[in-house]
Amino acid sequence: MSEIFDELQWRGLVAQTTDVAALRKALADGPLTMYVGFDPSADSLHIGNLVQLIVARKMQRAGHRVLCLVGGSTGLIGDPKPDSERVMRSKDEVAAAVALIRQQAEALLDFEGDNPAMMVNNLDWTEPISALDFLRDYGKHFRVNAMIKKDAVSRRLNSDQGISYTEFSYQILQGLDYLHLYRAEGCTLQLGGSDQWGNLLAGVDLIHSADGASVHAMTTPLITDASGRKYGKSEGNALWLNPDRMSPYAFYQFWINLDDSDVIDKMRVFTDQDEASIQDYAQQVTEEPFRRAAQKAIAAEMTTLVHGAEATAAVQAASEALFGKGDVAALDARTLQDATAELPGGEVAPGTGVVDALIAVGIADSRNAARRLIGEGGVSVNNIKVTDSDATLDTSTFLHGKVALLKRGRKHLAAARNPR
Questions:
Q1: Which residue, among 54, 14, 60, 12, has the nearest Cα to 34 in the 3D structure?
Q2: Residues 122 and 63 both lie in one domain
Q3: Domain boundary among 287, 306, 340
Q4: Is 117 in the same domain as 196?
Q5: Cβ 231 vs Cβ 223: under 8 Å
Q6: Does 325 carry a binding-site annotation?
Q7: Do residues 281 and 324 share a domain?
Q8: What is residue 217's predicted lDDT score, i.e. its pLDDT?
Q9: Which residues of the chain have pLDDT under 50?
Q10: Where is this motif: 'KMSKS' region (predicted)?
Q11: Would you say 367 and 359 are in contact if contact means Cβ atoms under 8 Å apart?
Q12: Any residues with CB less than 8 A from the CB of 89 and at least 6 apart, and which?
């Protein structure tokens, strides 16, 4: 337990804390109880949430107790956005999203054994509170002059739109969560993203004001790409954990495509690789970047963590097959669809000649060019070289009846999609 904070710092997983020395001592003296919460603003967790779950996993393995909160009540209100009022979601929509997020979180923490994690829903203790009790028992501990200093609130107050009391009250609701879990479960540490710092402090201050106790808060850093752009819903580039939102293949490809300048930092944050292993991968990135050993390692570990070993094996097979190192015909229908979804291409009906198909998918710009490519031995269909310029794509060429993989050389891929 005494080493967990040092590990989190080394991995770059600590952005802010209320009191470093006090938190370090509390962790060393542990076990302590901590919680991390997720609001159902979407029907999936994303890569930023994954960072917090990874910290929670490490804390649990170090012997600390983890509470995972899904925001059945706070999700009905919504954390204020800096630019506009949130669109209210129905109770049924929020409940459905809560169930999906709960399922995802349960797959990443250990809810059995000697130190099981515990799943909680803040609707259970918030819904029974009357409006009068909410104002008397909790609202009295909050000062408006402090609440309006929160960045998102301040920006909204200075806008033409302003902010509704509904969203303004969000930080009271989140503070109430911490107070409830402190009283009911002895929770003394809340974990969140660095953009949640103001809400975390609201809970710390509420516990101090209401019960005279000192508790802790810690945030994880925002996750950015090599250029410093963050990943998230607001940026339109969120990396979802739900396979219906982001396929395992696309998830795997994100990690495979990490920049050499970024992959080692991501390994520290996301994986269980120790310092010696990460140093070894860093050396390989420097000396043999073309092997992409670090990218392959993190892609396999993260895809297995989120989607399971079977999904990882399927997407690895697809990656190999697309570039001629495996049997593309052996891929299952879902993996094939995911693997070819982002490829350039076009609709090609069964019976179309290969020459016309090459034009349709954009590999050749004319029939003469297509025939020349075939004559030079540079064209393959489903990784089988085409030698006859009069060959056609019959029904059996379309894998699972859906798509045929056309290739020029080793790297120029396109998908011929059956329109029927």
A1: 60
A2: yes
A3: 340
A4: yes
A5: yes
A6: no
A7: yes
A8: 97
A9: none
A10: 230-234
A11: yes
A12: 75, 76, 97
pLDDT recorded at residue 35:
97
Q: Number of C-alpha atoms within 13 angstroms, CB side, residue 369?
A: 10
Q: Within a domain: residue 227?
A: no
- Omega within 30 of 0 (cis) for the link into 31: yes
List the helix and strand counts (H, then E) for the chain: 20, 13
pLDDT of amino acid 1: 55
Same domain for 91 and 212? yes
In this structure, are residues 269 and 328 in contact, taking their beta carbons and an 8 Å threshold? no
Quote the pLDDT of residue 86: 79
As a whole number of angstroms, the distance between CA 394 and CA 357 comes to 12
CB atoms within 10 A of CB 78: 20
Q: Which domain holds residue 69?
A: 4-220
Report how far apart, in Å, the C-alpha atoms of 230 and of each of 32, 235, 258, 270 are. Answer: 31, 7, 14, 16
State whether 44 and 187 are in the same domain: yes
240: in domain: no
| Shared-domain flag, residues 51 and 126 | yes
Residue 170 lies in a domain: yes
What is the domain-level CATH number for residue 127? 3.40.50.620
Q: Are 259 and 226 in contact (CB under 8 A)?
A: yes
Domain containing residue 412: CATH number: 3.10.290.10
Domain match, 300 and 256 both? yes
Q: Are 188 and 216 in contact (CB under 8 A)?
A: yes
Distance of alpha carbon 411 from alpha carbon 142, whole angstroms:
60
- Is 35 labelled as part of a ligand binding site? yes
**Whether residue 313 is found in the same domain as residue 202:** no
pLDDT in the model for residue 232: 64
pLDDT at 185 (0 to 100): 98
Specify the amino acid at residue 351: G
3-state helix, strand, coil in the chain (%, to 5): 50, 15, 35
In eight-state DSSP terms, residue 229 is P
- Select from 322, 340, 358 the last residue of a domain: 340
- 233 annotated as belonging to a binding site for a ligand: yes
- Whole-number pLDDT of residue 57: 95
For 73-110, the three-class secondary structure string (H helix, E strand, C coil) is CHHHHCCCCCCCCCCCCCHHHHHHHHHHHHHHHHCCCC
- Whether 138 has a binding-site annotation, put simply, is no
Residue-level pLDDT at 83:
79
Predicted pLDDT at 2: 65
